[in-house]
Protein backbone atom coordinates (compact mmCIF):
# COMPACT_ATOMS: atom_id res chain seq x y z
CA UNK A 1 0.00 0.00 0.00
CA UNK A 2 1.04 3.58 -0.71
CA UNK A 3 -0.13 5.12 2.55
CA UNK A 4 -0.80 8.85 2.22
CA UNK A 5 -3.31 9.13 5.05
CA UNK A 6 -0.87 10.86 7.40
CA UNK A 7 2.78 11.11 8.39
CA UNK A 8 1.75 9.42 11.65
CA UNK A 9 2.06 6.09 9.82
CA UNK A 10 5.84 6.41 9.49
CA UNK A 11 7.94 3.50 10.75
CA UNK A 12 11.02 3.99 12.95
CA UNK A 13 14.31 3.85 11.07
CA UNK A 14 16.97 1.20 11.64
CA UNK A 15 19.00 3.76 13.60
CA UNK A 16 16.02 4.42 15.86
CA UNK A 17 15.50 0.72 16.48
CA UNK A 18 19.16 0.27 17.42
CA UNK A 19 19.00 3.25 19.76
CA UNK A 20 15.88 1.85 21.41
CA UNK A 21 17.50 -1.54 21.94
CA UNK A 22 20.59 0.02 23.52
CA UNK A 23 18.89 2.82 25.48
CA UNK A 24 20.09 3.62 28.99
CA UNK A 25 16.98 3.87 31.15
CA UNK A 26 15.73 4.80 34.61
CA UNK A 27 12.46 5.84 36.22
CA UNK A 28 11.37 9.02 34.47
CA UNK A 29 8.67 9.81 37.04
CA UNK A 30 11.56 10.21 39.50
CA UNK A 31 13.47 12.19 36.87
CA UNK A 32 16.04 9.39 36.67
CA UNK A 33 15.85 8.29 33.04
CA UNK A 34 19.03 9.67 31.45
CA UNK A 35 17.82 9.21 27.90
CA UNK A 36 14.58 11.09 28.55
CA UNK A 37 16.58 13.83 30.26
CA UNK A 38 18.86 14.14 27.23
CA UNK A 39 15.86 14.28 24.88
CA UNK A 40 14.21 17.02 26.93
CA UNK A 41 17.41 19.05 27.08
CA UNK A 42 18.00 18.71 23.35
CA UNK A 43 14.40 19.57 22.47
CA UNK A 44 14.53 22.69 24.66
CA UNK A 45 17.76 23.73 22.98
CA UNK A 46 16.39 23.24 19.47
CA UNK A 47 13.22 25.18 20.32
CA UNK A 48 15.10 27.98 22.10
CA UNK A 49 13.25 27.41 25.37
CA UNK A 50 14.45 26.89 28.94
CA UNK A 51 13.00 23.42 29.37
CA UNK A 52 10.97 20.70 27.66
CA UNK A 53 8.74 17.80 28.65
CA UNK A 54 8.44 14.42 26.93
CA UNK A 55 4.79 13.39 26.59
CA UNK A 56 3.17 10.38 24.90
CA UNK A 57 1.07 12.36 22.41
CA UNK A 58 0.59 15.75 20.82
CA UNK A 59 -2.89 15.91 22.32
CA UNK A 60 -1.41 15.61 25.79
CA UNK A 61 1.18 18.25 24.96
CA UNK A 62 -1.46 20.70 23.77
CA UNK A 63 -3.73 19.89 26.72
CA UNK A 64 -0.98 20.64 29.22
CA UNK A 65 0.11 23.76 27.34
CA UNK A 66 -3.43 25.15 27.45
CA UNK A 67 -3.87 24.27 31.13
CA UNK A 68 -0.65 26.05 32.07
CA UNK A 69 -1.96 29.39 30.82
CA UNK A 70 -5.62 29.28 31.84
CA UNK A 71 -8.07 28.84 34.68
CA UNK A 72 -11.51 27.27 34.59
CA UNK A 73 -14.12 29.53 33.05
CA UNK A 74 -11.75 31.45 30.80
CA UNK A 75 -11.60 31.57 27.00
CA UNK A 76 -9.08 30.30 24.46
CA UNK A 77 -9.00 31.91 21.01
CA UNK A 78 -8.13 29.76 17.97
CA UNK A 79 -9.19 29.25 14.37
CA UNK A 80 -12.28 27.20 13.56
CA UNK A 81 -10.40 24.16 12.23
CA UNK A 82 -7.74 24.05 14.93
CA UNK A 83 -6.56 20.61 15.97
CA UNK A 84 -7.43 21.37 19.60
CA UNK A 85 -11.01 22.09 18.57
CA UNK A 86 -11.74 19.30 16.11
CA UNK A 87 -9.44 16.40 16.93
CA UNK A 88 -8.57 16.37 20.64
CA UNK A 89 -11.73 15.11 22.35
CA UNK A 90 -12.69 18.56 23.73
CA UNK A 91 -9.77 18.47 26.18
CA UNK A 92 -9.75 22.27 26.38
CA UNK A 93 -13.17 21.99 28.00
CA UNK A 94 -12.76 18.65 29.77
CA UNK A 95 -9.37 19.23 31.42
CA UNK A 96 -8.75 22.99 31.33
CA UNK A 97 -12.41 23.94 31.81
CA UNK A 98 -12.18 26.64 29.16
CA UNK A 99 -14.43 27.77 26.33
CA UNK A 100 -12.95 27.87 22.84
CA UNK A 101 -13.79 31.03 20.90
CA UNK A 102 -13.06 30.21 17.28
CA UNK A 103 -12.44 32.43 14.29
CA UNK A 104 -13.39 31.37 10.76
CA UNK A 105 -10.42 31.37 8.39
CA UNK A 106 -9.93 30.24 4.80
CA UNK A 107 -6.78 28.23 5.45
CA UNK A 108 -6.15 28.18 9.19
CA UNK A 109 -4.01 31.31 9.24
CA UNK A 110 -5.28 34.00 11.63
CA UNK A 111 -4.84 37.73 11.13
CA UNK A 112 -4.41 40.06 14.08
CA UNK A 113 -7.54 42.20 13.41
CA UNK A 114 -9.65 39.01 13.57
CA UNK A 115 -8.08 38.06 16.88
CA UNK A 116 -8.37 41.51 18.43
CA UNK A 117 -12.08 41.61 17.65
CA UNK A 118 -12.59 38.39 19.63
CA UNK A 119 -10.71 39.32 22.80
CA UNK A 120 -13.08 39.54 25.76
CA UNK A 121 -13.44 41.87 27.52
CA UNK A 122 -12.29 44.23 24.75
CA UNK A 123 -9.46 46.68 25.27
CA UNK A 124 -5.69 46.64 25.67
CA UNK A 125 -4.41 45.80 29.15
CA UNK A 126 -2.58 48.60 30.90
CA UNK A 127 0.13 48.30 33.50
CA UNK A 128 -2.50 48.40 36.27
CA UNK A 129 -4.36 45.44 34.75
CA UNK A 130 -7.24 47.66 33.58
CA UNK A 131 -8.19 47.50 29.92
CA UNK A 132 -7.24 50.67 28.09
CA UNK A 133 -10.34 52.72 27.40
CA UNK A 134 -12.22 51.47 30.45
CA UNK A 135 -13.55 53.85 33.02
CA UNK A 136 -11.28 54.43 36.05
CA UNK A 137 -12.10 52.05 38.85
CA UNK A 138 -13.56 49.41 36.53
CA UNK A 139 -11.36 46.46 35.51
CA UNK A 140 -11.87 43.34 33.44
CA UNK A 141 -12.30 41.46 36.71
CA UNK A 142 -15.45 43.48 37.36
CA UNK A 143 -17.13 42.37 34.14
CA UNK A 144 -20.26 40.36 34.94
CA UNK A 145 -20.99 39.22 31.39
CA UNK A 146 -17.78 38.25 29.56
CA UNK A 147 -15.47 35.40 30.45
CA UNK A 148 -11.92 36.71 29.97
CA UNK A 149 -9.77 35.68 27.03
CA UNK A 150 -6.44 34.52 28.43
CA UNK A 151 -4.82 32.39 25.74
CA UNK A 152 -4.27 32.58 21.99
CA UNK A 153 -3.69 29.24 20.29
CA UNK A 154 -1.88 29.21 16.95
CA UNK A 155 -1.16 26.21 14.69
CA UNK A 156 1.87 26.26 12.39
CA UNK A 157 1.90 24.43 10.00
CA UNK A 158 -1.86 24.18 9.98
CA UNK A 159 -3.12 20.61 9.67
CA UNK A 160 -6.62 21.10 8.26
CA UNK A 161 -5.43 24.09 6.27
CA UNK A 162 -3.32 21.66 4.29
CA UNK A 163 0.06 22.43 5.83
CA UNK A 164 -0.25 26.20 5.42
CA UNK A 165 2.27 28.46 7.15
CA UNK A 166 2.43 31.79 8.94
CA UNK A 167 4.93 34.28 7.66
CA UNK A 168 7.54 34.70 10.37
CA UNK A 169 7.03 38.45 10.71
CA UNK A 170 3.26 37.98 10.93
CA UNK A 171 3.60 35.20 13.50
CA UNK A 172 5.88 37.26 15.71
CA UNK A 173 3.72 40.36 15.35
CA UNK A 174 0.60 38.44 16.40
CA UNK A 175 2.41 37.11 19.47
CA UNK A 176 3.60 40.61 20.41
CA UNK A 177 0.10 42.02 20.04
CA UNK A 178 -1.39 39.18 22.09
CA UNK A 179 1.12 39.75 24.87
CA UNK A 180 0.30 43.46 24.87
CA UNK A 181 -3.30 42.48 25.60
CA UNK A 182 -2.18 40.26 28.44
CA UNK A 183 -2.79 37.00 26.54
CA UNK A 184 -0.39 34.08 26.59
CA UNK A 185 0.38 32.25 23.33
CA UNK A 186 0.52 28.48 22.86
CA UNK A 187 1.88 27.27 19.53
CA UNK A 188 0.74 23.91 18.20
CA UNK A 189 3.85 23.18 16.18
CA UNK A 190 3.14 19.50 15.68
CA UNK A 191 5.09 19.75 12.41
CA UNK A 192 7.27 22.75 13.27
CA UNK A 193 10.32 21.15 11.67
CA UNK A 194 8.36 20.97 8.41
CA UNK A 195 7.79 24.70 8.81
CA UNK A 196 11.52 25.16 9.35
CA UNK A 197 12.36 23.09 6.28
CA UNK A 198 9.89 25.05 4.15
CA UNK A 199 10.98 28.52 5.25
CA UNK A 200 14.69 28.10 5.98
CA UNK A 201 14.13 29.38 9.52
CA UNK A 202 15.08 27.44 12.62
CA UNK A 203 12.42 25.92 14.83
CA UNK A 204 13.70 28.17 17.63
CA UNK A 205 13.18 31.26 15.51
CA UNK A 206 9.64 30.20 14.60
CA UNK A 207 8.76 29.49 18.24
CA UNK A 208 10.62 32.47 19.70
CA UNK A 209 7.59 34.56 20.67
CA UNK A 210 5.33 31.73 21.89
CA UNK A 211 5.09 31.08 25.61
CA UNK A 212 4.82 27.34 25.05
CA UNK A 213 5.18 25.17 21.96
CA UNK A 214 4.30 21.56 21.28
CA UNK A 215 5.80 19.47 18.52
CA UNK A 216 5.50 15.81 17.54
CA UNK A 217 8.32 13.33 17.21
CA UNK A 218 5.99 10.73 15.69
CA UNK A 219 4.87 12.49 12.51
CA UNK A 220 7.35 13.60 9.85
CA UNK A 221 10.27 13.01 12.21
CA UNK A 222 9.26 9.32 12.17
CA UNK A 223 9.81 8.34 15.79
CA UNK A 224 7.36 5.63 16.88
CA UNK A 225 5.90 7.50 19.87
CA UNK A 226 6.03 10.85 21.57
CA UNK A 227 5.76 14.62 21.49
CA UNK A 228 7.49 17.48 23.29
CA UNK A 229 6.18 20.52 25.15
CA UNK A 230 8.66 23.36 25.59
CA UNK A 231 8.54 26.61 27.54
CA UNK A 232 10.11 28.30 30.52
CA UNK A 233 11.37 26.25 33.44
CA UNK A 234 8.47 27.11 35.75
CA UNK A 235 5.87 26.16 33.16
CA UNK A 236 7.49 22.83 32.41
CA UNK A 237 7.85 22.08 36.11
CA UNK A 238 4.11 22.56 36.51
CA UNK A 239 3.55 20.62 33.30
CA UNK A 240 5.13 17.53 34.83
CA UNK A 241 2.38 17.44 37.43
CA UNK A 242 -0.30 17.77 34.76
CA UNK A 243 1.37 15.00 32.77
CA UNK A 244 1.11 12.74 35.80
CA UNK A 245 -2.57 13.63 36.29
CA UNK A 246 -3.24 12.67 32.69
CA UNK A 247 -1.51 9.31 33.06
CA UNK A 248 1.61 10.32 31.17
CA UNK A 249 4.21 9.17 33.71
CA UNK A 250 5.90 6.48 31.61
CA UNK A 251 8.65 5.11 33.92
CA UNK A 252 11.51 3.61 31.81
CA UNK A 253 10.57 5.78 28.86
CA UNK A 254 14.16 6.05 27.64
CA UNK A 255 13.40 3.19 25.26
CA UNK A 256 11.05 5.60 23.46
CA UNK A 257 13.10 8.73 24.05
CA UNK A 258 16.10 7.13 22.35
CA UNK A 259 14.17 7.00 19.08
CA UNK A 260 13.11 10.61 19.66
CA UNK A 261 16.74 11.71 19.97
CA UNK A 262 17.59 10.09 16.65
CA UNK A 263 14.49 11.69 15.13
CA UNK A 264 15.53 15.14 16.31
CA UNK A 265 19.07 14.86 15.00
CA UNK A 266 18.48 13.03 11.72
CA UNK A 267 14.95 13.47 10.40
CA UNK A 268 14.83 17.26 9.88
CA UNK A 269 17.59 16.91 7.28
CA UNK A 270 15.30 15.06 4.87
CA UNK A 271 11.92 16.77 5.36
CA UNK A 272 12.45 18.86 2.23
CA UNK A 273 12.17 15.62 0.23
CA UNK A 274 8.62 15.18 1.49
CA UNK A 275 7.81 18.73 0.46
CA UNK A 276 9.17 18.16 -3.05
CA UNK A 277 7.10 14.98 -3.35
CA UNK A 278 3.95 16.75 -2.15
CA UNK A 279 4.37 19.54 -4.70
CA UNK A 280 5.01 17.06 -7.51
CA UNK A 281 1.90 15.08 -6.61
CA UNK A 282 -0.17 18.26 -6.40
CA UNK A 283 0.95 19.42 -9.85
CA UNK A 284 0.01 16.04 -11.34
CA UNK A 285 -3.60 16.20 -10.12
CA UNK A 286 -4.37 19.95 -10.04
CA UNK A 287 -5.54 19.99 -13.67
CA UNK A 288 -7.98 17.08 -13.33
CA UNK A 289 -11.42 18.38 -14.38
CA UNK A 290 -13.57 19.06 -11.35
CA UNK A 291 -10.69 19.04 -8.84
CA UNK A 292 -10.31 22.18 -6.71
CA UNK A 293 -6.66 22.42 -5.64
CA UNK A 294 -4.89 25.68 -4.86
CA UNK A 295 -1.23 25.03 -5.61
CA UNK A 296 -0.19 28.12 -3.65
CA UNK A 297 -1.25 26.39 -0.42
CA UNK A 298 1.07 23.40 -0.91
CA UNK A 299 3.81 24.64 1.40
CA UNK A 300 4.92 21.54 3.28
CA UNK A 301 4.12 17.82 3.04
CA UNK A 302 0.34 18.08 2.65
CA UNK A 303 -1.96 18.38 -0.34
CA UNK A 304 -5.59 19.33 0.24
CA UNK A 305 -8.13 19.21 -2.57
CA UNK A 306 -11.88 19.06 -3.17
CA UNK A 307 -13.37 16.49 -5.56
CA UNK A 308 -16.96 17.77 -5.44
CA UNK A 309 -16.75 18.98 -9.03
CA UNK A 310 -15.91 15.50 -10.31
CA UNK A 311 -19.19 13.99 -9.13
CA UNK A 312 -17.30 11.27 -7.22
CA UNK A 313 -18.11 10.92 -3.53
CA UNK A 314 -15.28 10.70 -1.03
CA UNK A 315 -16.43 7.25 0.03
CA UNK A 316 -16.25 5.91 -3.50
CA UNK A 317 -13.01 7.76 -4.20
CA UNK A 318 -11.20 6.35 -1.18
CA UNK A 319 -12.56 2.83 -1.72
CA UNK A 320 -11.50 2.76 -5.39
CA UNK A 321 -8.07 4.10 -4.50
CA UNK A 322 -7.66 1.44 -1.83
CA UNK A 323 -8.43 -1.21 -4.44
CA UNK A 324 -5.54 0.26 -6.43
CA UNK A 325 -3.16 0.22 -3.48
CA UNK A 326 -3.41 3.85 -2.34
CA UNK A 327 -4.71 5.14 1.00
CA UNK A 328 -5.77 8.78 1.46
CA UNK A 329 -7.28 10.84 4.27
CA UNK A 330 -10.27 13.16 4.55
CA UNK A 331 -10.95 16.63 5.90
CA UNK A 332 -14.70 16.21 5.65
CA UNK A 333 -17.28 16.17 2.90
CA UNK A 334 -15.57 15.84 -0.47
CA UNK A 335 -12.26 17.28 0.71
CA UNK A 336 -9.27 14.96 0.48
CA UNK A 337 -5.95 15.26 2.31
CA UNK A 338 -2.79 13.43 1.31
CA UNK A 339 0.41 13.59 3.34
CA UNK A 340 3.89 12.66 2.14
CA UNK A 341 6.53 11.22 4.46
CA UNK A 342 9.71 9.17 4.59
CA UNK A 343 7.94 5.90 3.75
CA UNK A 344 6.56 7.07 0.40
CA UNK A 345 8.98 7.69 -2.44
CA UNK A 346 8.79 10.03 -5.42
CA UNK A 347 7.77 7.03 -7.53
CA UNK A 348 5.05 6.15 -5.00
CA UNK A 349 3.66 9.67 -5.35
CA UNK A 350 3.75 9.36 -9.14
CA UNK A 351 1.81 6.10 -8.95
CA UNK A 352 -0.66 7.60 -6.49
CA UNK A 353 -1.32 10.53 -8.84
CA UNK A 354 -1.98 8.11 -11.70
CA UNK A 355 -4.44 6.19 -9.52
CA UNK A 356 -6.20 9.41 -8.49
CA UNK A 357 -6.59 10.42 -12.14
CA UNK A 358 -7.96 6.99 -13.02
CA UNK A 359 -10.51 6.96 -10.20
CA UNK A 360 -11.73 10.49 -10.82
CA UNK A 361 -12.16 9.72 -14.52
CA UNK A 362 -14.90 7.27 -13.49
CA UNK A 363 -17.22 10.18 -12.75
CA UNK A 364 -20.46 9.92 -10.81
CA UNK A 365 -21.62 6.70 -12.44
Please describe what this structure looks like.
With 365 residues, this protein is an alpha/beta fold. The chain has 2 domains: 11-267, Aspartate Aminotransferase, domain 2; 270-360, Aspartate Aminotransferase, domain 1 (Alpha-Beta Complex). It is built from 14 helices and 12 strands. The protein has helices at 14-21, 34-47, 58-68, 83-86, 91-94, 112-118, 168-180, 192-199, 203-207, 233-245, 254-266, 271-285, 314-323, 346-360, and strands at 2-3, 51-55, 75-79, 99-103, 149-155, 184-188, 212-216, 227-231, 302-306, 326-327, 329-332, 335-339. A 7-stranded mixed beta sheet has the order 2-8-7-6-5-3-4, sandwiched between helices. A 3-stranded antiparallel beta sheet has the order 9-12-11, covered by helices on one side. Helix 1 (14-21) packs antiparallel against helix 11, helix 2 runs parallel beside helix 11 (254-266) and helix 12 runs parallel beside helix 14. The longest helix has 15 residues, at 271-285.
Amino acid sequence: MIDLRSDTVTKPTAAMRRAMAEAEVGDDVYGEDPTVNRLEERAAEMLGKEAALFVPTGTMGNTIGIKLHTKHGQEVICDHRAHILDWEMSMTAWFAGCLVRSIVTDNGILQWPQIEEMIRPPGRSGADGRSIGESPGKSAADDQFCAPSTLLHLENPHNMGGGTLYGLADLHSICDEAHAFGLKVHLDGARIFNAAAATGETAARIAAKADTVMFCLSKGLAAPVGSMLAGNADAIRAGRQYRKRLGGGMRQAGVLAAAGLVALEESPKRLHEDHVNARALAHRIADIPGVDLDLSTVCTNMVLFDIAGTGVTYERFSAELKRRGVLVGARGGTWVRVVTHQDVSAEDCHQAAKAIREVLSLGAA
